[in-house]
Amino acid sequence: MAKMYQKMAIRGGEGGREWDDDVYEGVRKVYVGQDLSRITYVKFEYVKEDGEVVTREYGTINQQPKEFVLEYPDEHIIAVEGSYNKVALFATEMITSLVFKTSKGRTSPTFGPNLFGVVNGTKFVLENQRKKIVGFHGRSDNALDALGVYFALDSLNTSTPLYKLEAQGGTEGTVWDDSSYDGVKTLRIGKDNCRITYLESEYVKGGKSETRQHGVKGETPSEFVLDFPGEYIKSVEATYNRPILFRNTVITSLKFETSNGRTAFFGYEVGKKFVLKQNGLKLVGFHGKEGDAIDALGAYFAPIPAPTPLIPAKKLPSVGGNGGLAWDDGVYDGVRKIYVGQGNDGVSFVKFEYIKGTDLVPGDDHGKQTLLGAEEFLLEDGEYLTAVEGYYDKIFGVEEPMIISLMFKTNKRESTQFGMDSGTKFTLGENGHKIVGFYGQACDVIYGVGVTVVPITE
Question: Is residue 224 part of a domain?
C-alpha cells in the first residue's frame, strides 16, 4: 500500500541553489554546523526501506558540526523549529537556528548562534500533528539559506505514492481541496485587473471527466487544453501579492509548463514567486484557499505511469515475387477491413484498413484496380486475423511470380477466396499470433505479400 507525503514549503531566504532529498523510511542522524551568525552546514543520514543508509550534506563546514542521533527505528523527528534572518554582508535571509523534536519527547540542542538561548530573526515551525518527518529539501550555497520537510501521512489504497505540496499565497479565504486524479485535461483561468480570480480544473479519473471550480468566474475565463493522457503538467510557477485597495494577499499570476515543453501564462507577475513541482512526477490535482479570488494554491503530484510494454512485432517472410516496388503499411493493433481487386491473371490490388487504439487508419492503395473493382472483407468487433492463405505463380508475360489468390482466416471464420487455385500454395501466419500489418511488392499487380504478427493477448 502506497503512502502520501506532505511537502511543506521552505522557510528562509531565496539565495543559494535548490536541493531536494525526497523521502525515505526515516532519519537516523542529523549534523549541523554554524559560524558566528548563521547555520552554515547540514548533513542528514536517511534509512531506506531495505535498510541502506544514505547521507546528504549541504553548505560548508566552518566550525566542527554537532550531531543529533535518533534511536532509529523506534524514534523519529516530528517537528523542526528554527529562525531565519538577513545576515550582515549578505543580500538575502539565511537560517540562523534549528531545533529538532522527536516522537519520544526529546529536543535537540539549539543549533546556531544563540546567546543565553536567544535567537535572532523570524521564527518558524514545521510540524503536522506529530507526523513523521521522512525527508528534507531547501536551498544552500556557502550556508543554509532555507529548509523544508516531508511528512509521511496515512497509507493510501494505491500502488504509487502521492505528494501533497503545501498551498502558498495568502492566509485568508476558505480552504478547498480537489484531491488527486489520473491527470488534468483542461484548465480555465479567470482574472480581473490585478489578480487570479477563478480556477476551473477538468480532471480525468478512470476515463471519466470531473470538473471543479474555485473563486469567482466573472468574465469568460481563458482556457488551456492539454493533450491528455500523453501530455501532463510538470510544474506551476506562481506569484502572490496584496493588491492595492484589497484586504487579502492573493495569487497574482500562474504559469504552467507541460511535459511537451508548452507553457501558458495567466495574470500579472507581481509579488513573491513560488514553484509547485516534484521532479519526475506529474500534477494530478489542486488544493488551496478561495474567496473573491484564489488566495493560495497547492498541488498533488504522482508518479508518471510506466508506458505499456510494447508487444514485440515480427515480420514473417514474404511470399511471391520481387517485381515492382516494395511497400510496408507498418504495425497497428489489428485489421478492420480488407479490399482485394482481381485482374485477368490474379490479384491486382489490395488495401487494408487498420485499428490503432480507438481510431481506424486507412492504409495506402497497393497495385492497380481493374474494371472488376475490389471486393471487401469486414472484420467484426473482437475478431482478428490469424492467417492468410493463397497461391502465387509465374504468369506468361510477367517477369516475376505474382499473387494469384488470397483467402483470410480469423479467430471466428474464413473469407471467401479472392482469385484462383493455381501455382504454389502458401500460408502466412503463426500459432498464437495475430496479423497486425502487411507489406509486399506491387506495381500494376501484387507480386509479393508478407505479414507482421504479434502474440495474441486477448
Answer: yes
